[in-house]
Each structure stands twice: as structure tokens, then as C-alpha cells.
Amino acid sequence: MSILLYVISYFSLLVFIVACAVRALSYARAPIHLRWELYPVPHEAPHRVGHGGSYYEEPEWWTKSSPRNLLGELKSMGAEILFLKALWEFNRKLWYRSFPFHFGLYILIFAVFLILLCGLISFISPGFMQGSLAAGLQFVFRAAGGGGLALSIWGALGLLQLRLTDSRMKIYTTPGDIFNLLFFIAAFGTLSAGFLLGTGPSTGILAFTRGLLSFDTSFETTGLLAAGLVLTGLLVAYIPLTHMSHFIAKYFTYHNIRWDDAANRRGGRIEVKLAECLAYRPTWSAAHIGADGKKTWADIAASSPARGPKK
Amino acid sequence: MRKDIHLKDLSRKQKEPLLHLEKKDLMPLPYPLEDPDDGPPFAELKEQIREKYECGLDDTCAVSIPKPATKEEEDALVAKFLSGLEKLFTKENNWTFLQPLLLSMEHCAKCQTCSEACHIYEASGKNELYRPTFRSELMRRLYFKHVKKGGLLSAWQHGDIEINWPLVARLIELSYRCNLCRRCAQTCPIGADNGLVAHELRKIFSQEMGIAAKELHDSGSMLQLQVGSSTGMNAVVVKDNIEFIDEDMEEKTGMKVQTPWDVEGAEVLLIHNAGEILAWPENPGAFAVILNAAGIKWTLSSEVAGYDSINYGVWYDDAQFARVAVKHAEAAKKLGVKKIVLGECGHAHKALTVIADRVLTGDLNIPRESSMTLLRDIVMSGRLKLDPGRNDFPVTLHDPCNMVRLMGIVEPQREVIRKICPRFREMTPHGVDNYCCGGGSGFAIMSGNNFPDWRFQVAGRKKLEQILHAFGDCMDPSIPKYLCAPCSNCKGQLRDLLAYYEMWDKHKILYGGLVELIVNAMEDAKPGFIEWEWH
Fold first, then answer.
1. Which domain holds residue B248?
2. Shared-domain flag, residues B252 and B355
3. How far apart are the first and last CA of chain B?
């Protein structure tokens, strides 16, 4: 049993890391695109960011340096990542469900890191988890783990209820969307039950973590907790294979698109990237494009359109 | 009105359109248009139009796609659409928007947060067909099925859709039911962009299938690249017209007005939307008065496209967009000017300054600036003697989406108005949260069939509501009111919108640009530059 749990855990983690990396790389390797920013852009100068202004409000903006307002960007990112600010502002009904779901996940991630740390320390120094510091850590872990699971389950149930009953969402909801939420509820529900009904929940998890790090095959746990761990492991592996990996996408949609106001300067790095793109050879079929697979984008941009039959 | 339209309905083979709009279902308007029956009726499409063109979406027809004669023709068009869809996701064909498109395709959570932000969805009475995610979801399902070659598992995860000619034909029309204002994208927690999806769909139709609204393509970008301007004016005609405008301005202002042409080494190459020259000559005239009075060394260009800043390609075709942008830059390069300044045209601002920033390289990368900042500097510098008392009438400001939400030019025009218009009032909301005028993405110049009815009753409805609220305390026709819209396309839409609802005749709401207000306040000019006549 313990070997199976360890294998699933490591396998899930591996799939998660590889799938996230593949997805992130696929976006990162996409060619530079035309600018498509949306204002407000939070790294704009503080006196402009309030009204959503850009450096284009400056006369002869290209003669002036425009230092990045890192604090503005961090504030905006923090509010969005931690508190789902956009949902709070524009879709309050969903926020009441989505916020506990996501915040619960954050707390759970914190709890996982905490128990991993405890497991690592107790693996190195077996007596460590006996003292009062250990008791404190166990309390924090219990509170974070339990609270995180409860919040996430509550949020997932709310999201499921909304998907099934809200006429705005129903026709766009696929069986996959329902499955995703049910998967969360099942995995976290089983894990919670394993926690609550087990004899020593934190010790069980700690023992499992220690075993995970040391491949200790003597570890034993309840069937319920084992089922919770297996389901949660599979869930972790499944997430980056779906649109739920929007934690990766958001980096690109915000930093590379909405907030990408980097101006192209002669001889600069953007111009180098553009040179590569302008050398691509498109194959669009419409006559006016004049693409024959040999002409580059630069050739086409410099040419006159051919008159072709328009439908 | 039918509200229970489902995604799969788009594939339905039926003669009647999926949606019939009724005025009573549309978003209510405030005084004086509270009665749903106020305003003109929605004209029905003529039977011969329905017979000849694909009109299966709603009560209007924007693109006028001829109906295929045979099943083979239909199949060939569907195959072409699918080949275009595949090309859209390759870097060779679509490096320009590949990354944003992939992210919008793969990560929409279908939470519908964007819906409430869309003026078209809201104005339609929240009809499902106009929900911003509706067309995106169709595109997304096609992407997973035909580009990613998803099977049953993919259909289970992402949803399925049957592709046939009725679906493609309706998608063509549906891609022209979005103003591309991207207000929806601004609210998306994930950063998905439904405006971009509509834009990319239009690109498949134009770049692969050769289908586009004729106002944008044939009499738009094609005419501009061949003649020099989508107005059809060549260099000789435009110079004649400007000469006439100069004379008219001299008469109106009592000041010497001469527009310089092709001045090498000038500080500023000013590029107007050439539509101004024909429709609102007082706008380029006012620019000339202001720049001359401020002592700016400026010029116009008579090169092909150098005197017309429009770039309709930005709405439907990357190749056409790039070609026009290159022409603009070449005109500036030839004259060796210090910078290009864009006149009062929102999409021209965004196209040449922001989007073309990653097309123009080397010596074509000539600095581009907004006329809003130049005008703000002139007004605030004290170089002009201005009397705000001459603008003592209610003024409100429309924010062109391209200039404001998509470029971040928010305050310069406001600083000018606050200085010279004592009775200025903002619309709600405004700035980067503004609503589109309803003419964005080319709609302002699209007037085939009964499309204008849709444009005024649906697309422009939210803006009309805002205008009526802004002037709610002074609707009495004895009080002249000025709606300032520093954008040619917005002005075109607002002119037609106000006329449609008789807002000038009954309530004396006039529209115009920013420079007209400045010249109207100039002490050195004869009073009464703004003539309070409908035009």
C-alpha cells in the first residue's frame, strides 16, 4: 500500500511539473506578437496609473525614459492573485464561490509545504517532532490543511451549483467542466474524511510525508486517507492537462499581452525578434494577400495588393 | 425575441434567421426615449436580399455573402474555412496574434464575467446570440476539434460542434456583431479576449476565403492603397479641397490660414482621417488655424496614403494593415519629418502608434504622437489666447476606445476641455471604462441593407443612453449642447445616431471634435467658429 501511495505521489508530482513546464514553454516560445495592451497598465508611472494613462500622454514620449512602476504592478498582481479582484469587481456572485475555492487551495499549498518541511526535518532529526515547536507546527498544519480543504470544497460545491443552475453558464458548461469540479470535491472530500476519521490525522500525514521522503515501507494508514491521497495525487496530475492551468496562462495574458507596452526601439531586442517574424513565409490563400509560400511578411507588407475576386 | 439560442443552432439549416429583434426587448432608454416605440422602426430585410445573400443569423446582414449555388460550393467554402482555421494557429501565418489567440482559446473558464461589460449584449436585452463568449465558444470548439484534432475525449472536455456551411456563414456575420472595443477583455479575470477572437475570425474570412465587408476592403483598404485614400481622393483632389478649406477658415476666423504641403524636414507630419476633409472640413481647418497660431513647423503629405490616416486592415486583415502602415511611414520618411502626429481618429492612432510598432522597423520606425498631447501642450503653454466664455454651453466628452482603453491617452483631451469649457460634464462611466459609440471596428462606415438600424438600435444604444444621461439636466432645446468626440469614426457613428433619434432637431445636441472647441475659444479668431448647424 505504502509503495503504491509513494509511486502515485511522485508520479503525480512529475506529471504536474512536466505538464506545467510544457504548457508554459509552448506559450513562451510563441513568436513576439503585435502589441495588444489594455489600459490601465499598472506598471505605468504612478501619476498616470490612477486614470489608466500611458506614456503616450507625454509629449515626445520617445525622448523620455519611462521607469517601470514595479510597486504598482506588484500591488495589482497581489490583489488579483490573492483576492481575485477582477471577479470581485465584475462578477460578485461568482466571487463568493470562486474566492473560497482558490483561497482554500492557497492555504492547502501552504499546508503541503509546511508538512513537507516538517517531514524533511524529522527525517534528518527524528526527535524534532516531539517538542512544543512541533506541537505548534502541527496545530498550524491542522488548521491550514483542514481550513483549506473546507474552503475549497465549499467553493467547489458553490461553483458546481452555479454551473448547473445559472442560465448564463449552463449552455457553455461541458461534461468535462462538471467532472473537474466533482473531481475536486471527491478528492478533497475523501482526504478530509481521512483526516477526520483517522486515528491521528496529522501524525498520519506526517508519517506519510516522512515515508515519502525516505521510502519507508513500514508506513500504514487508513483506507480512507489512502484513497484521499491517491485521488488528490491524480487531481494534481490532471490539472495542468486542462484549462484549469490558468495559473500559467494568467502570467502570459497579463504580462505578455495586457500589460506589454514595450516600445520597439531602433536596434533594440524587439526589432531583432521582429526581423525573424517578418521573414516568415505565409500561405494565406486570398488573392489580395499575394502569398505564394515564397514571399515573406516583409515582402507582402511592402507590396501592393493583387486585385482578386472578392465574394 | 428568441433568447434560448444554443451553440448548436448555428449549424441549423433553415431559411429564417435565428434571431428576430423586437424593440420592446431592447435595453430601455431614458428620457426622452422611454417609450420602446420611440425612434424609427427596424426595417425588414428585402426578400430579394434574403434570397441572394446569407442572412441566417439575425434581422440584418452586414457582409452580404452570396449564397452558394450548389452543395459542392458549400463544401468547398467549409474546406477553405477549415484550412484558414489551421493557418491561424501557425506562426508562419499568424505570428502577429498567435500567442494571445492560443491563450484565449485554451483558458476561458466560461464564467461569463465579460458579458455584463458588453454594450451590444446589454443593449440587445441580453440576447444569448450577442453574448461575447458565444462566438468565442464556437471558435474554441472548432479549434479543439479541427486544429487540435480532438476526439471524443476532447469533445467531452471542451464541447462539440458540427461544422457545415450554415455555421460558417453565420460565423461570418457574427464576427461583424462585435465592435472590437475589448471592454469585455478588460474584465476577464484570466485575460481571455473575446474581441480578439472576433478579430481573428474576420482574418480567416478575409485572408483565406477572400470575404470581408466591402466597405472595409474594396472601398476601404484596397482603394486607399491604390488611390491614396478610401475617400477616393487622389493627391490633386485632396490639395484642392484643402485649399478650399483654408479659404473658408480665413473667412470664418479672420486669420491667415495656409496649409503647408510636403515640407521636407518639418517638425510634424500631420495625418488626418481624410473623411474629415469631406465630411467635417472645419476639423482639418481648425488644426491648421491652431498649428499656425502656435508656430509649429508642420506639413501634410501628398504621398499615397500619406494624407489619409485610416487603416481599416486593423479590423480584419493583417496584410492590408501592414501595407497601409508601411505607406504612412514611407510618407514620413520621404519628407524626413521629426515625427508623425495623428489627427482626430482613434483607430488610426492605435493602428499606427501601437500595433504598427511591431511592424515598422529600422528607418521606418519614425516617432508617432497623438494630436491630443500636442494640442494639450499648445493650449496649456499659453501660446494661444483663449476665452472659455466663448464655450459657455454644456459639453461632454466621448472617449474613443482605440485612443483611451487601448492606448491610454485619457487626460490630455480632458485638460484641454477643462481649461476652455466651463460647463464640461463627464459621461458615466468614462476614460478607460468608457462604452464604444457603436461604430467601432468599421461599423460606422458600414451601411449596407438595414445594418444601420442594427447599428443605432443595438450597437449605439448604450452610448446614446450615456449621452442622454450626461445632458439630462439640460435637454431643453433652447440650450445648445456639444458632444465632443475626437475621432472621425466615432463622429460618423454619433452623427448618424443623433440624427436617427432626432436629437439635434428636438434637443439641440450637436457633435464635433476637440479642435473646433479650441478655435471657438481663440480670442484672435472671430467669434462663432462653431456654427450650431446640423452637419
1. 217-375
2. yes
3. 36
Q: Let me know whether B201 and B223 are in one domain.
A: no
Cis, peptide link before residue B30, omega less than 30° from 0: no
The answer to whether residues B266 and B151 belong to one domain is: no
Mark whether B221 and B284 lie in a shared domain.
yes
**CATH number for position B337:** 3.40.50.1860
SS3 assignment, position A233: helix
Q: Which of A91, A53, A289 is nearest to B117 (CA)?
A: A91
Nearest to B364 by CA among B332, B319, B324: B332
Burial class (CB in 10 A: 0-12, 13-18, 19+), A130: exposed
Q: Are B441 and B468 in contact, with CB atoms under 8 Å apart?
A: no
Tell me which of B208, B232, B263 is where a domain ends: B208
Q: Are A12 and A237 in contact (CB under 8 A)?
A: yes
Question: What pLDDT, in 10s, does the model give residues B446-494?
Answer: 999 999 999 999 999 999 999 999 999 999 999 999 999 999 999 999 9
Of the residues B5, B65, B99, the best mutation for testing chain A's interface (the one with the most A CB atoms within 10 Å of its CB) is B99
Residues of chain A positioned with their CB less than 8 A from the CB of B100: 33, 36, 253, 257
Q: What is the pTM of this model?
A: 0.95
By C-alpha distance, which of B292, B306, B228 is closest to B262? Answer: B306
Query: Could you give the CA distance from residue B194 to residue B206 in angstroms, rounded to a whole number?
Result: 19
Q: HEC states along B76-104?
A: HHHHHHHHHHHHHCCHHHHCCCHHHHHHH
Same domain, B190 and B298: no
Q: What is the nearest CA distance from B495 to chain A, expressed in angstroms? A: 27
Q: What is the ipTM of this complex?
A: 0.95
Q: Residue A173 and residue B110: Cβ atoms within 8 Å?
A: yes
* pLDDT tens readout for residues B299-347: 999 999 999 999 999 999 999 999 999 999 999 999 999 999 999 999 9
What residues of chain B lie within 8 A of the CB of A251, using their CB?
none
Residues B123 and B157 grouped into a single domain: yes
Q: Which set of grid coordinates corresponds to residue A250?
A: 494568467
Domains by residue range for chain A, with CATH: 2-36+84-258 (1.20.950.20)
Contacts of B92 in chain A (CB under 8 A): 280-283
What are the contacts of B251-256 at 24+ separation with CB within 8 A? B252/B282, B252/B285, B252/B525, B252/B526, B252/B529, B253/B289, B253/B519, B253/B522, B253/B524, B253/B525, B253/B526, B253/B529, B254/B525, B254/B526, B255/B289, B255/B292, B255/B293, B255/B524, B255/B525, B256/B292
Specify the amino acid at residue B290.
Answer: I
Q: Is residue B435 part of a domain?
A: no
Shared domain check, B285 and B153: no
Task: Tell whether B160 and B234 lie within a shared domain.
Answer: no
Cα–Cα distance measured from residue B250 to residue B257, given in angstroms and rounded to the nearest whole number: 6
Within a domain: B411: no
